User: Fold these one by one.
Assistant:
Number 1:
Amino acid sequence: MSLDTLPVYRGLRVPRVARWSAEQDITPRVYLQGGRLVYRDPDLTRVSTQQGALWRVWSLAPGKGVPLLANLHPARQRRMMVRSLCQVCGLSTATEAAAEGGQLVLTGSGEVAGRGPIEEQERTMNPPLHLACAWESVRRCPHLLEGYAAARVTDARPWGLHGILHAPEGRRTAAGDLAVALVSPAQIAYEDSRLPLVLAGQTILELTGVRPVDLRVEAARAGLDGAEAGR
Ligand SMILES: [Zn+2]
């Protein structure tokens, strides 16, 4: 994997999935048509309809402005979740997952203090990582090690979408039936009949075959730099 190609900010390499301040939410108004959300522009609706729902529209400008590490760019997050790409370097995690008995997943991202281990059938919006990439990320901020839970999972099943659920009835306007937000944020499963009423921003995976791991131990076993420090 080539960490050297990652965008750099103040000397630190920034995970590919992170949103940058120059990347803006340019989602236009949302309308209801035939029981589903649409934009006025049919071409924009077509390219923005993915996984059975309409997606928010964000501009792409990785590396521009300031990285917002707690924010995932919706289009990059979706691509990484669907293709099992590493959220840090953007390359496939398939080879490492096959060799190590599952994809490496981190959850918890610090805001959940002292959270427990990742559980069977837990849902996540965090794309997988390579061990080296995960280690590089948490080493930059050692306190993150305490806030994260890590696991290898044998199956990360597509579960559904995270976004804004809209009412099935819109508000009549001259331009069409304007969609009315109902629940935000909402998590709606792919098999839920309300999926076409979600304005999506993230893909959700359900984790099964979960084997919690200690990232520090895994890093030491792999001989990664700094893994022995602080033990
Ligand atoms: Zn990676």
Number 2:
Amino acid sequence: MAKHFEALQRAEAERKRKAGVESPDLPPSGAEWDSSSVVPGEARRKGIRRLLPSFRKEAVDGVDDSANELNKRRITILQPESFASEQFRMLRGRIDALATQQRLCSVAVTSANPREGKSMASVNLAVVTGMSVGRRVLLIDCDLRRPKIHKTLGIEAEYGLAEVVQGDCSFEEGVQTVGSLGIDVLPVCSLPGNPSELLASAQMKETLTKACESYDHVILDTPACLGLSDTKTISELSDGILVVVRADVTRREDVDAIMEILDRRKMIGMVLNDVEPTSGQRGYY
Ligand SMILES: Nc1ncnc2c1ncn2[C@@H]1O[C@H](COP(=O)(O)OP(=O)(O)OP(=O)(O)O)[C@@H](O)[C@H]1O
Ligand SMILES: [Mg+2]
């Protein structure tokens, strides 16, 4: 747990100049991502890994879904050479190193509270993993309350996690292939009335079992951990848990609280989000 405290100390100590400062790593305000390479179904996208040259406007839908906010979650897509993208590649490398010692097919990404960067971290971890040749990567949006993955990746689908778990469609029908990124995604397309029950169901467990049989890496974007049973349920089904801490925002006691809720043996690390690196090269992840 030394790393845990180290990250917390850094988070607490972090006093950055946020107001009015746009980091060089921030995707340009006008940048948009063309999601036309999203294809439904089972198609597997081996070898197609390019960034699309043109970008399409996203529909604005709420505070976190403006094009600018969506772009902040697409840092490794829009700026693959950035410092932030490099941090995600390093994170991937560390997870790979751990995976030589323990089973780590599925990794749940969570945080204590809303808006700390769980979806941002999930998407970017999936994207950098998808860039590695020969890896089959599935990103699952397990946030059945405030899903973000479909908007972030421009997926408009009829079926998603809720439909798969409810048996309204097959696993293969629910999975969308984002050809340009080399990853598959099981998004959330409709919000069920009973999210906690769906996540705790035997069908959800079967879905994750199937995911790990079909993919080398399964990344699970989850809701905030405090106040909901959803994340605990998902984390019990996953091999590892990655906790996102947002610098200057996440309170230490909240991180301590989720450490009590989640299975510490599954904790594989902590992502300190929204910091300015001390190395002299500025970034924001
Ligand atoms: N490092 C960062 N720098 C700038 N903006 C960021 C950063 N990380 C996340 N954001 C922005 O903060 C908002 C919340 O991020 P995100 O949706 O990833 O959080 P979340 O923890 O998944 O939220 P929720 O609990 O609602 O699912 C988004 O608008 C995102 O673009
Ligand atoms: Mg989220």
